[in-house]
Structure formats: C-alpha cells, structure tokens
C-alpha cells in the first residue's frame, strides 16, 4: 500500500537528489536505469529527517531483543547514527551503534569496529541504503565472523529494489533462508514507480512512459520470480 509516509519519503529522496534516473551500475555489477545514492545527503536537516524515516521503520519492525545497530562503511555510517539518534528521540529506545573501518587500525586500541564493540550473543540489525543482490549484507556477515559470534537478525534499507539474489528467488528470500535475516525497506521500487509515474516533481517528470518501460525491462531481467 502506498501510504502518505511512503510518498513523503520518495519526495524527500528526490529533493535531496538521492533517487536518480539515468544509466548506472550497481555494486553487484548490474546496469540499472535508476540509482539510490545516500551519499548525496549532506545537511543537518536532511540527516535529521532521514533518521526519522528509518526510526519509524525500526520502531515498527525491530526485534525486541536487538542489542545494537550496525552501519557498514561508508554510506551506512550516517544512516545508523541518524537512525539511532531518532529512535531515541522519537521513541525513547536507546540502542548503541557501531560501524566498521575499511582499514584495520594498527595503533591505539586497534581493531576495525568503531563505537559499540559487539559481544558474543549480541543481536544486530544492519542499517543500509538499498538491497540489490545482497552483496553488502554478505560482506557484513563475513566481517562479523571476525569480530564476535553474533546473530544478525534484520536489515533496514531505504529501498528494496525487488531483485533476485544469486539464484532465481528474491534477495530477501535468500537472506531469510540462508541467514535468517528479515529485510524491512522504507519503500520498494514498485512504490517509486507507482508514485512518480507521470507525476511532476518541481515541474519535471522523472518517470515518463519511456523510463517506466526501462525500469520494467530491468525488473523483467533481474526481478525476483
């Protein structure tokens, strides 16, 4: 269902030039006609609003036994931080957060985790930008195998691209079956198509008939069965 909150979030991504249309390549190597670049959020106001959207999704779906939020470097770092701040400010739920270094620190306390240091038995929720083929999630799982024996229970993303993973089923189903991870998007690509098709944003239509056909063709090629 395309709720008012989802429409508002899509407009928010458009206003921040985060949701873009053209010719792009995803982390999994797929050529795509649209892209979500959360690296384009750049102001305090945007960070605050973004955190509120994530916090609302977290409040609705976050397992009660979750002990920490994890934001994969680099784009996941501000997402996890803003989400944790909004989760406390808006719902009184105070969860620690952590993120990884791309390079292991070889001085001071060392290590490659910043913020909360995950412990054995922790239940972790990943806060990311999008889910495509699940590449970033698998990298995070491999990372935690070097940190502590934790359970990664859930993944929260801005957009579910509704694509298949390494097989024929959806990435969400793969993550659920392989690792027991539930994925919770704020919006899906179908929400985006439905809301923006032939709808002008600041006087410009971003998903006209031609772009809609490109997006549908992409989903026919890479979408989950």
Radius of gyration: 18 Å
The H/E string reads HEEHEHEEEEHEHEHEEH
Content-based structural category: alpha/beta
- Label the overall shape: globular
Helical fraction:
25-40%
How confident is the prediction overall: mean pLDDT? 91
Determine the number of helices (DSSP H or I, runs of at least 4 residues): 7
Structure described in brief:
This protein has 225 residues and is α/β, with parallel strands linked by helices. It contains seven helices and eleven strands.
Structure characterization notes:
The protein is an alpha/beta fold. Helix content is 39%, strand content 26%. The strands form three sheets. Strands 3, 4, 5, 6, 7, 8 and 9 form a seven-stranded mixed sheet that branches. Strand 10 and strand 11 form a beta hairpin. It starts with a helix and ends with a helix. The mean pLDDT is 91.
Summarize the helices and strands and which ones pair or pack.
Blueprint (H helix, E strand, L loop, with lengths): L3 H12 L3 E7 L5 E6 L7 H18 L6 E4 L4 H16 L5 E9 L5 E5 L7 E5 L2 E2 L3 H10 L6 E10 L10 H9 L2 E7 H8 L3 E2 L2 E2 L3 H14 L3
Parallel strand pairs: 3-4, 3-6, 6-8, 7-8, 8-9
Antiparallel strand pairs: 1-2, 4-5, 10-11
Key phrases:
225 residues; alpha/beta; 11 strands
């Amino acid at each position: 269902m395309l709720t008012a909150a989802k429409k508002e979030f899509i407009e928010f991504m458009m206003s921040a030039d985060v949701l873009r249309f053209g010719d792009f390549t995803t982390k999994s190597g797929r050529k795509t006609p649209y892209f979500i670049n959360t690296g384009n959020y750049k102001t305090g106001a945007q960070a605050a609003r973004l955190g509120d959207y994530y916090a609302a999704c977290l409040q609705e779906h976050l397992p009660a036994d979750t002990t920490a939020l994890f934001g994969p470097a680099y784009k996941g770092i501000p997402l996890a931080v803003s989400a944790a701040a909004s989760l406390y400010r808006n719902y009184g739920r105070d969860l620690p957060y952590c993120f990884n270094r791309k390079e292991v620190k070889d001085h001071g306390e060392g290590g490659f985790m910043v913020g909360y240091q995950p412990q054995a038995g922790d239940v972790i929720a990943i806060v990311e930008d999008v889910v495509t083929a699940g590449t970033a999630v698998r990298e995070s799982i491999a990372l935690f195998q070097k940190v502590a024996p934790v359970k990664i229970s859930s993944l929260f993303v801005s957009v579910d691209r509704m694509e298949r993973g390494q097989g024929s089923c959806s990435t969400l189903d793969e993550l659920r079956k392989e690792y027991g991870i539930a994925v919770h998007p704020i919006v899906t690509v179908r929400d985006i198509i439905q809301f923006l098709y032939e709808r002008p944003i600041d006087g410009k239509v971003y998903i006209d008939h031609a772009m809609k056909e490109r997006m549908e063709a992409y989903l026919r090629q890479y979408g989950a069965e």
